[in-house]
Structure formats: structure tokens, C-alpha cells
Amino acid sequence: ETILTICEFNKELFNINDDIELTLEVKNIKTLYLNIYEINTENYYYSNKKRFDETISLDGIVPTYEDIFSYNDKPQLLTEKKVPISKLPKKRGLFVVEFIGNGHVS
Questions:
Q1: Block means of pLDDT (10 residues each) for the chain, length 106 residues?
Q2: Within the chain, how many helices (H) and strands (E) appear?
Q3: Hey, which residues does 66 pair with through a beta bridge?
Q4: Contact (CB, 8 A) for 22 and 5
Q5: How far is CA 54 from CA 58, 64, 106, in A?
Q6: Is the distance from CB of 60 to CB of 97 less than 8 angstroms?
Q7: Phi/psi of residue 41, nearest 5 degrees
Q8: Which of 2, 7, 34, 63 could form a disulfide with 67 if both were Cys (CB 3.0 to 4.6 A apart)?
Q9: Residue closest to 104 by CA, chosen among 54, 33, 55, 37
Q10: Residues 105, 99: contact at Cβ < 8 Å?
């Protein structure tokens, strides 16, 4: 079984100078891919005529920032991993963070 879940207790809003780190529950994942998408909120609003919705489809969108993490945990072990989001620039904006590992997306 493979598990890749973003823990619900993570913050959703950060200040510009905050160090950003998200906690995940991970099981049976050796390589974790991190994709960060910067959303142009003005274009999004004009196109959709509504506030931003977390269920946005990322198909066909190229990530603004990417990172890769490797783990050597036993496949049957469920662990919490703190993943630093260090590639994110220190600026205001709306970003969608996507994790991909062993065929699972979160």
C-alpha cells in the first residue's frame, strides 16, 4: 500500500519571511516530487468570475518551481515527513503545492 497525504494541521497562509515547511504522511514512497504552481489571481478571477477554488485542475500547467526528495524508509513503515518548501520565493502570491510519489498525487 502507498500513502501520500498532506496533514490537515499544516498552515495554509504564510507571511513573506516565514520558512515554509509542510508535514506529510508517507508510506512506500522512495522518491517524492514537489511541484509548485504560481497562480495569476487576476487572470484566474477574470476567467472564472469567482474566488480561487482549491480543486483547480493542474493538467497541462507547467510548475513554476520543482524539487525532488529521496527516502530510504522501509515500504511497510508509515512516517511523517517534514518537507521544506525552500524553492518558493519570498513574495506575496497564491501558490498551489503538489506532491507526487509512487503514482499518488496530493
A1: 96 91 96 94 85 81 94 94 90 91 93
A2: 1, 7
A3: 35
A4: no
A5: 11, 17, 12
A6: no
A7: -65, -35
A8: 34
A9: 33
A10: yes
Q: Is the Cβ–Cβ distance between 79 and 26 less than 8 Å? A: yes
E strand or H helix that includes residue 74: none
What does pTM read for this prediction? 0.88
For the chain, strand residue ranges (E) read 3-6, 21-27, 31-39, 65-70, 79-84, 94-101, 104-105
Partners of residue 34 on adjacent β-strands: 67, 99
- Grid cell for residue 6: 498532506
Q: Please name which of 24, 34, 28 lies closest in space to residue 2, comparing C-alpha atoms.
A: 28
* Residue 67, C-alpha cell as written in the block: 524539487
Q: Round to whole Å and give the CA distance between 98 and 106.
A: 6
